[in-house]
Each structure stands twice: as structure tokens, then as C-alpha cells.
UniProtKB/TrEMBL annotation:
<feature type="region of interest" description="Disordered">
    <location>
        <begin position="64"/>
        <end position="90"/>
    </location>
</feature>
<feature type="compositionally biased region" description="Polar residues">
    <location>
        <begin position="66"/>
        <end position="85"/>
    </location>
</feature>
<protein>
    <submittedName>
        <fullName>Uncharacterized protein</fullName>
    </submittedName>
</protein>
């Protein structure tokens, strides 16, 4: 049964894998007997979903923002210079050696 023939009605089941079909215009007149692999169920006038384009290659690198941005570092750096804080403390007010200092 060619696909272009349109809609058909199943008249009777001839065997477990074959059916007798007829046109929807004249259901009394069978068109023929067809195997189940040839028949497809009617889905209506649904438009099949369009397959999205597959992106190929390596995914783009996502850069996570750091906890301290250069703008906020400038604010802390400026506050250290203008305050009369203990010189042994770093930018964040924590005591420690040169490893904790903000350069």
C-alpha cells in the first residue's frame, strides 16, 4: 500500500500480522490485505518536530567570577592607605605575614 493513498479503515484482521483495509469513502469495498509492517497509525495533522542543529566541537569555556573583583580590591586597597590601622594587618584586617598581604 503506497503511502500516498491516504487514509484507510481496517475492515478485519486476517491473521495476527495482516489486516484487510478499505478506503474511508467506501468501507464496504476492501482495497487489499496488508502486513502490519506496512501500516502506520493515523497521527492527525501534526507537524513533526524540527530537529535542532547539533553543536559540534568542544564546549565553550565558562569562566566563574572570583570572590574578589578588581573593583572591590581597589576599594579595600584604598581604605588601607587612608586608615590608621595596624601596619601588621593585611587588606582584610587579618594579622599575618607577607603571604596574606594584597599586592
Amino acid at each position: 500500500m503506497p503511502r500516498r493513498d491516504g487514509l484507510f479503515v481496517i475492515v478485519e484482521r486476517k491473521s495476527p500480522v495482516s489486516y484487510s483495509v478499505a478506503n474511508t469513502d467506501s468501507p464496504q469495498l476492501p482495497v487489499g490485505v496488508y502486513h502490519t509492517s506496512v501500516l502506520t497509525p493515523f497521527q492527525g495533522n501534526l507537524i513533526p518536530p524540527i530537529k535542532a542543529l547539533r553543536r559540534r566541537g568542544r564546549p565553550a569555556r565558562i569562566i566563574k567570577p572570583s570572590s574578589i573583583t578588581p573593583a572591590s580590591a581597589q576599594i579595600h586597597k584604598g581604605s588601607q592607605n587612608t586608615s590608621s590601622a595596624d601596619p601588621g594587618r593585611d587588606v582584610f584586617g587579618v594579622r599575618g605575614g607577607c603571604c596574606n598581604r594584597w599586592f
